[in-house]
């Protein structure tokens, strides 16, 4: 139950504030690589939108060309088309949030209004490479829920029809009904095969576009109106990025999410010792689950990011092969930890936004080597058949200091701490080579690099050296790496991505799970160790401490510290976004450490400081909220049905119940994990948990009300079916007036019966539900998926909405869009896309909605 409001109903100040807020979501510095504004920052916009000329980014890097030509990443005859697309701006893409109450309306509007009206626009030249129309659904994404747009930002601004589309995208994105996300980044969650009961771990989750998508899938596959049995744990090492993730997923309004802040390679297994006693020696109650294992793991690791060149063209300048080499070992460690935490029978997806085989096939091979038969690389060729992808490579080379190396035998002894055996197709180590009496030539013998060890600009293949021919044979992997998927930009006008799907058949070999005490290091984004923190014993899924048994002894190769890591979705719209206004204040759950000012971040070492303080200090505790008096006053005031469990499902982040401001609701699955976490000494560092359900009213009027806790708009949809008091039905016209004017005196409602009922309520928070067609004011309130409701405040003389301005705006726009469709202003149905079963189901629902809309419009117009 969202909110919605018309522009007409706002004050000028509100409108200006709102507009500024929305502008900021899209405003980006032209040199900001985080911008994903289509076609805006690296080309001359020559569409209808004018001739604003930007400095173009250099899109040349000879090292890049040499490296990828040598890897045979595309056939020689496609090289030019590959590079041509890589140098062109990335089309925009977005996803409809299928757990939104209005997702079918939004899809309908795109399919039947925008798709046709935009296409019909004469004179709009869509961007280069836009072969099939202005906007279109991505054919491989289920149920037309993901879309591709070819328009540049300038075009969107200039043309009236496009401007409307632009406004639509901005509003729906801010509300959370759509999420802008690069098309290829939507792929990994689809291969995870998630269902409503699954425990899902997103190991490197920030800024959260895939987490959001995973939650959508979990919710979409659960029974309407009930919380899913599953949950998503979204983890990221970086505190600031965790905050973006929290902000991003807040739009999802979910009680089934836990955000944690760990090094993924050391993610705790929380294995409970059932005989554990607490500090006072009292035997603790057994938690429902005894260790933290997951049905699904998404391992979307940090990478060099060269698959994002189209949206972050400054990578052209920065790119070098050391970027991939530098993250290889960390990627292996993270993936191995993911497999440790995966249940037998579970699925893990490994993905990067890099094309580099050292970060992709080499990591997959090393996983398979370590796991033996316990893990299978799954052939998913029959899944998402419309997605064009290429098989993984079976052979590749490693480049170091300007030299292409075909085998670990070719690695100079001075570089063996940086270039490790697992980077090569055979994965054979120097020791193994020696054991087999293979002579390993030192660089002096080969005459490489002339001893200066720095030849990044000079490309030498070892094939040109004096090494005997049999040692120069290219290594070819024995693993079925053709089952991996590489998505190439020129195949379907996207970015690049790599995806591999694993199935865990049995526990990992003992060597991968042996006890190992590991001092958890604090790392920066580029994995440079920052500081040692107190040793933490981390238990893995088998009760052992996490092992980094990957041949690196936990060392990060030194190249990592030179690498400027790039992330898959550095430009999620939460960056630079203003905070929501009105009653739903924005509140990041990770507390600032005392004295920690934003300005610190700009100083040298500021980020480091935040990292250290945010990660290990300054994070508010998560506690079960058990204050019986407050809980029962809330239950009584709103008449919350006993079948809705409150006890054990409420958490707060304040030790002092008298000062608890917000009470969060957690699902049964999250509750179980939280109980487990307490029983294992809080191994999980929780940055955010639960759905904000109740908020204390601190104003004088609020605190004098019989119940000082109001229901938050995020929490309302979950609790709505169980509320029996302080709730009333409003006619569509009064409901719309409330959204427009925000506060209405009792005498001013159109429906006098409603006025009377509203003024009869107890002072304090109440819920107003919009009456459906054919319903009378006195009818019992029945809640279902289509119910539209808002939280209000029953004051002395008036009823006031407690919904953000933007939610009011959105709800009003949704209601009027429904009405417009009904008026037949949109293009006729029979011109629409061919109808799948899902479409037919949608049509049925739309027809039902149509009836509702007719009645709304009649009343409003009348
Ligand atoms: C490719 S991005 C993830 C994008 C994300 N999955 C999404 O779809 O929005 C990689 C993330 O890994 C995080 N990261 C880097 N090193 C990490 C580590 N050792 N453990 C956990 N996260 C790490 C970075 O902060 C970054 O947010």
TrEMBL record:
Residues 20-33, 819-856 have a biased composition (Basic and acidic residues). The active site is at 353 (nucleophile). It is found in: Nucleus. Residues 82-505 form the SAM-dependent MTase RsmB/NOP-type domain. Transmembrane segments: none annotated. GO terms for molecular function: tRNA (cytidine-5-)-methyltransferase activity; tRNA binding. InterPro entries: MeTrfase_RsmB-F_NOP2_cat (IPR049560), MeTrfase_RsmB-F_NOP2_dom (IPR001678), Pre-PUA_NSUN2 (IPR057285), PUA_NSUN2 (IPR057286), RCMT (IPR023267), RCMT_NCL1 (IPR023270), RsmB/NOL1/NOP2-like_CS (IPR018314), SAM-dependent_MTases_sf (IPR029063). Its main location: nucleus. Residues 9-19 have a biased composition (Basic residues). Belongs to the class I-like SAM-binding methyltransferase superfamily. RsmB/NOP family. This is tRNA (C5-cytosine) methyltransferase, NCL.
């Amino acid at each position: 139950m969202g909110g919605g409001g018309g522009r007409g109903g706002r004050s000028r100040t509100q409108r200006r504030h709102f507009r500024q807020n929305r502008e900021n979501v899209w405003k980006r510095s032209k040199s900001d690589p985080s911008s994903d504004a289509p076609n805006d920052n690296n080309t001359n916009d020559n569409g209808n939108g004018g001739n604003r000329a930007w400095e173009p980014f250099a899109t040349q890097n000879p090292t890049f060309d040499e490296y990828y030509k040598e890897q045979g990443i595309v056939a020689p005859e496609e090289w030019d088309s590959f590079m041509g697309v890589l140098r062109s701006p990335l089309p925009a893409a977005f996803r409809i949030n299928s757990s939104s109450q209005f997702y079918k309306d939004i899809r309908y509007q795109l399919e039947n209004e925008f798709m046709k009206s935009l296409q019909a626009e004469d004179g709009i030249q869509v961007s280069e490479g836009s072969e099939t129309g202005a906007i279109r659904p991505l054919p491989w994404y289920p149920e037309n829920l993901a879309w591709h747009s070819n328009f540049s930002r300038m075009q969107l601004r200039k043309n009236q029809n496009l401007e409307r589309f632009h406004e639509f995208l901005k509003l729906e994105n801010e509300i959370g009904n759509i999420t802008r996300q690069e098309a290829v980044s939507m792929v990994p969650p689809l291969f995870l095969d998630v269902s409503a009961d699954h425990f899902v771990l997103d190991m490197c989750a920030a800024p959260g576009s895939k987490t959001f998508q995973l939650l959508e899938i979990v919710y979409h596959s659960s029974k309407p109106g009930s919380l899913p049995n599953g949950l998503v744990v979204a983890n990221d090492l970086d505190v600031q990025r965790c905050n973006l993730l929290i902000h991003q997923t807040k739009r999802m309004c979910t009680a089934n999410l836990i955000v944690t802040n760990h090094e993924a390679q050391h993610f705790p297994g929380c294995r409970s010792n059932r005989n554990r006693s607490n500090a006072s020696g009292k035997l603790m109650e057994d938690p429902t689950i005894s260790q933290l294992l997951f049905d699904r793991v998404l391992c979307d690791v940090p990478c060099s990011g060269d698959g994002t060149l189209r949206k972050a063209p400054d990578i052209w300048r920065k790119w070098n092969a050391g970027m991939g080499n530098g993250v290889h070992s960390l990627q292996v460690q993270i993936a191995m930890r993911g497999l440790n935490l995966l249940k037998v029978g579970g699925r893990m997806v490994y993905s990067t936004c890099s094309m580099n085989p050292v970060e992709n096939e080499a990591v997959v091979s090393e996983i398979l080597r370590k796991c033996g038969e316990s893990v299978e690389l799954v052939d998913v060729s029959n899944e998402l058949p419309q997605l064009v992808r290429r098989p993984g490579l079976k052979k590749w080379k490693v480049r170091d200091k300007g030299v292409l190396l075909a085998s670990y035998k070719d690695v100079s002894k001075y570089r063996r701490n940086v270039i490790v055996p697992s980077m090569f197709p055979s994965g054979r180590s120097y020791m193994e080579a020696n054991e087999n009496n293979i002579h390993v030539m030192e660089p002096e013998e080969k005459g490489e690099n002339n001893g200066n060890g720095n030849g990044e600009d000079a490309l030498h293949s070892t094939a040109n050296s004096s090494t005997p021919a049999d040692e120069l044979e290219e290594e070819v992997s024995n693993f079925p790496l053709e089952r991996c998927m590489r998505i190439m930009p020129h195949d379907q006008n996207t970015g690049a991505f790599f995806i591999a799907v694993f199935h865990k058949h049995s526990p990992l070999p003992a060597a991968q799970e042996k006890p190992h005490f590991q001092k958890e290091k604090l790392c920066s984004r580029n994995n440079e160790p920052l500081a040692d923190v107190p040793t933490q014993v981390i238990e893995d899924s088998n009760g052992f401490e996490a092992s980094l048994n990957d041949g690196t002894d936990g060392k990060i190769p030194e190249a990592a510290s030179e690498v400027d890591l790039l992330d898959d979705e550095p430009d999620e719209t939460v960056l630079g976004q203003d905070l929501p206004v009105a009653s739903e204040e924005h509140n990041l759950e990770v507390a600032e450490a005392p004295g920690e000012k934003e300005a610190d971040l700009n100083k040298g070492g500021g980020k480091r400081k935040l990292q250290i303080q945010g990660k290990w200090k300054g994070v508010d505790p998560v506690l079960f909220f058990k204050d019986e008096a407050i809980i029962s006053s809330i239950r009584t005031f709103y008449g919350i049905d006993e079948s809705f469990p409150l006890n054990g499902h409420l958490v707060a982040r304040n030790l002092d119940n008298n000062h608890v401001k917000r009470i969060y609701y957690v699902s049964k699955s999250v509750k179980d994990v939280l109980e487990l976490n307490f029983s294992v000494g809080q191994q999980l560092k929780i940055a955010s948990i639960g759905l904000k359900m109740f908020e204390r009213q601190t104003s004088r009027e609020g605190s004098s009300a019989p119940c000082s806790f109001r229901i938050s708009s995020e929490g309302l949809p979950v609790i709505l079916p169980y509320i029996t008091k302080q709730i009333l039905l409003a006619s569509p016209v009064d409901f719309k007036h409330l959204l427009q004017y925000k506060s209405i005196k009792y005498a001013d409602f159109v429906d006098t019966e409603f006025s009377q009922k509203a003024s009869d309520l107890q002072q304090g928070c109440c819920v107003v539900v919009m009456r459906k067609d054919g319903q009378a004011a006195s009818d019992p309130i029945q809640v279902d998926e289509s119910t539209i409701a808002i939280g209000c405040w029953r004051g002395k003389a008036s009823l006031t909405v407690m919904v953000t301005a933007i939610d009011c705006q959105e709800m009003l726009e949704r209601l009027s869009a429904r009405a417009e469709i009904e008026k037949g202003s949109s293009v006729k149905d029979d011109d629409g896309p061919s109808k799948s079963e899902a479409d037919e189901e949608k049509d049925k629902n739309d027809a039902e909605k149509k009836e509702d809309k007719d009645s709304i419009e009649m009343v409003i117009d009348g």
